[in-house]
Amino acid sequence: MDFQLTHEQKMLQESIKKMVDRDINPILRAHDPDKPLTREATRQILDICQPFGFTGLRLPEEAGGVGVNALTFGLMKEMLPPVVSFICGGQETTAVRIYYGGTPEQRERYIPAILKGDKLGSTGSTEPNSGSDPRAIRTRAIRDGDHMVINGQKVWASNAAICDFMLVIANASEDPKGPSKLIRIIADKEDAPFVTRKTPTLGFKQGNLGEAFFDNYRAPIRNVVGGEDDASAQKVMHQTWLVQRPMMGLLAVNMAQKALDSAVQYSRERVMFGRKIGGFQLVQQLLSEISTAVTTSRLLCYYALDCIDKDINANQLSAMAKRYSIAACQKAISLAMEVHGAMGISTELGLEELYRDVRMLPIPDGTNQILTLIEGRELTGISAIR
């Protein structure tokens, strides 16, 4: 049991960190922190991230991807600013979901364009009344000749507001009261337009999280991924969620680490009552709690990803890693704000932005409540949902 990163892993993380400081952070700072990045800025960021493979980390090499394992995926994504991770994730996850089950023609048409950032992709699975329960999806896709007619709404989709196409998870059952028949369909604006818009949110304001509306949208039948009886649709979604949950935890770790670094530096510089506040016992207690939250969260996420790589049942660990890490890192950022006193709540320092951003993370890929029920099911063998 080795808890140390290898020399190669450390070098990989360091090279990504340098790339972020040198190339990405200036782009983020040049744009209004309270407004979504433009399409041009998003493309620019993808161009920078593409040589590191961020748009196709989980795709096999023969598909043009990098084919890294889950742990390496996490080690790399932890180094990215979370808003950039969501940008790349919108591309990468969509590519993975098209690759597995997609036809050779679909792969050839979309995968290279996604990897290069020539096409901005998004995946639409969540709906106003369907999130953690994909069988409750109401967006309908009914065949009409050589097309699938789509009606419905998708929400909380990364890159939706600026996407060129969306991989839509829809219900193809013609009986609204019958069992769900999930399929995946590519809705491409080159085939026909559909309406998208940015969703105003508490955090990640530079992102393009949004929703899409389909009103008798006609997608060519060739755009159906996995066939009209796509038995793998839910399995593919589950497998991507399994990795993405610890990944969300590592986004929180990224932010909490920034808060810790800032708090430690401030404690060494700020003087009160004639001495640096880092010498006060209560300040050291706050720093210790923040550091413990960062370390335990990071290790738990790494462990969950390592178990996925070793093909160990990680349903419980994946859920646990996301739920625990985000909660711990939310508290850590709040404590770091306390170390800074009044400066902690200033917009100048940036901790309040981290505080808003980290609060966004409990929602994607399973809420705390759903993750708790997954953990309970794995422990007892009894589902509290069905």
How is the secondary structure organized here?
Layout: H1 7-30, H2 39-49, H3 70-77, H4 82-99, H5 104-116, E1 121-124, E2 140-144, E3 147-157, E4 165-171, E5 182-188, E6 195-198, E7 210-220, E8 224-225, H6 233-269, E9 271-272, E10 275-276, H7 281-309, H8 315-339, H9 351-358, H10 368-380
Explain what this protein looks like in three dimensions:
By secondary structure, the chain is an alpha+beta fold. The protein starts with 6 loop residues before the first helix and ends in a 6-residue tail after the last helix. 48% of the residues lie in helices and 14% in strands. It folds into 3 domains: 7-116, Acyl-CoA dehydrogenase/oxidase, N-terminal domain (Butyryl-Coa Dehydrogenase, subunit A, domain 1, Orthogonal Bundle), CATH 1.10.540; 121-230, Butyryl-CoA Dehydrogenase, subunit A, domain 2, CATH 2.40.110; 234-380, Butyryl-CoA Dehydrogenase, subunit A, domain 3, CATH 1.20.140. Strand 2 and strand 3 (147-157) form a beta hairpin.
What kind of sheet is the major sheet?
4 strands, mixed
Q: So, the CATH homologous superfamily of the largest domain?
A: Butyryl-CoA Dehydrogenase, subunit A, domain 3
CA distance, first residue to last residue: 37 Å
Rg, alpha carbons: 22 Å
What's the rounded overall pLDDT mean?
A: 95
- Tell me the series of helices and strands, N- to C-terminal: HHHHHEEEEEEEEHEEHHHH
CATH architecture assignment of the largest domain: Up-down Bundle
Q: Note the overall shape.
A: globular
Could you say what the CATH topology of the largest domain is called? Butyryl-CoA Dehydrogenase, subunit A, domain 3
**What class, by secondary structure content?**
alpha+beta
